[in-house]
Amino acid sequence: MKEAGECSASRSSQPQFWAKLVSVDSRYPDVEISSDEMVVFSEIVSSSTDKHEWCKITRDSNQSSATLQNKSSSTILVGGEVVQREDTAVVKCGSEIVPGPAREGYLIYKFEIMPTLEFCNNRLKICIDLEHVKCSICLNVWHDVVTVAPCLHNFCNGCFSEWLRRCQERNSSVICPQCRAVIQFVGKNHFLQNIVEDILQAYSSLKRSMEEVAHLNSYASIQSNLMINSGRKRTRTNLMLDEDTESAELPCPQCGSGYGGFRCSQNTVHLQCQICGGMMPSRAGINVPQHCMGCNRAFCCAYWRAQGVTRTDSYPICNSASLKPVSERSISRIPHLAHEKNRHEQDITERCIRQMGRTLQDVISEWIGRFNRREIDRTRLGLNHADMINATTNICNECYDKLVSFLLYWFRVAMPKHYLPEDVAKREDCWYGYACRTQHHNEDHACKRNHVCRPSRGAH
């Protein structure tokens, strides 16, 4: 019987392993994976020291994942999913693997990928004190980081959202929990969030439990940039200003007058429209969309239309088409995002639609119906809240283009081959399918291979 981590391939005297299986039980050694394809022999149950062949791990071309094949005599668990004998599953850094049909009674391994020399050389090195990446409210490492201005302190989204809510309930100025400065702006900080994720990957002991994360997310209310009034009381001098000057200093129409039965208070938080830059009050619990469900960005058109407010020189309002339900939209051209921006595949799709005697709008309407009936796998949709989106969901123009591109992929995949032009139908599938990077810089490859298909290599 071979030692743990050995494979049928020859090994050098000083192997450089690219990944390893780390046993959750510290009494058992790690399984080091040194070759691109390796059959693993290791302990399976905690009650025995016998080693058995139970999986084959093949390194994927992107070097950030691997394909695991079950070589044992029974089912195994990969990331909580059952993998039958000889079946495969994609494993990434952090994937949990159980060499048996249940967690109880079996060893548990974590799959870890070692950083390559190239990865380390190209990676920005940041030296940071862990105390400087902690939220001053919960005293834990930031989760879903938001930054406030002008003081530029950072907090967890859930922590600061609750702080903001309590300040508004007291009808007081929103001050920074850390330095007590009056806050005028708050928004998500994606750059710091990426750094936090790298830190948590390096120091797993700092990670919160799933229950803590879910609890914190339940309080998070900051989806896009918020403008916050200072709460400063207006003086008599302010009130004596002429109407034009006064209105120009107010964030939105509802700050100066009541529309639709609502008027902003001194502490009302405002959202800035993604399109026109105008302001509107952030109002939870109203049946009027203020954010695109697909990207969480704020758009003001639907809100002001519901309030009966029209555009003026002082208060811009974005076009009514900027945010509206999927079912109310129309389309006459294939989005440039379709088929991963491969213009050859876009041209083929357009020709096929004409060959079928249909229009693009007709095709998209049909597939939105299928999408609404959940006949389509939404894994690759690429929109926030993908599982919640349906025909009545309000989304922006950019997210609608992404949705149409997603639906056109499934339209092509499901299309009978006799609708394809003869030269197109004879093309072989690209090994990397829609994930192929060569199609973006090699016109010949983009044209000669079919890229509207699932990858047969790599982790996708």
Automatic annotation (TrEMBL):
Localization: Nucleus
Single Gene Ontology BP annotation: protein ubiquitination
Record key words, sorted: Cell cycle, Metal-binding, Nucleus, Transferase, Ubl conjugation pathway, Zinc, Zinc-finger
Chain segments annotated as coiled-coil in the UniProt record: none
GO CC aspect terms: nucleus
Major localisation: nucleus
Pfam families: zf-C3HC4, zf-CRD
Gene3D superfamilies per the UniProt record, alphabetical: 3.30.40.140, Zinc/RING finger domain, C3HC4 (zinc finger)
Domain RING-type positions: 135-180
Keyword Metal-binding: yes
Molecular function terms, GO-annotated: ubiquitin-protein transferase activity; zinc ion binding
Protein's name in the database: E3 ubiquitin-protein ligase CHFR
Organism: Punica granatum
Gene giving rise to this polypeptide: LOC116212372
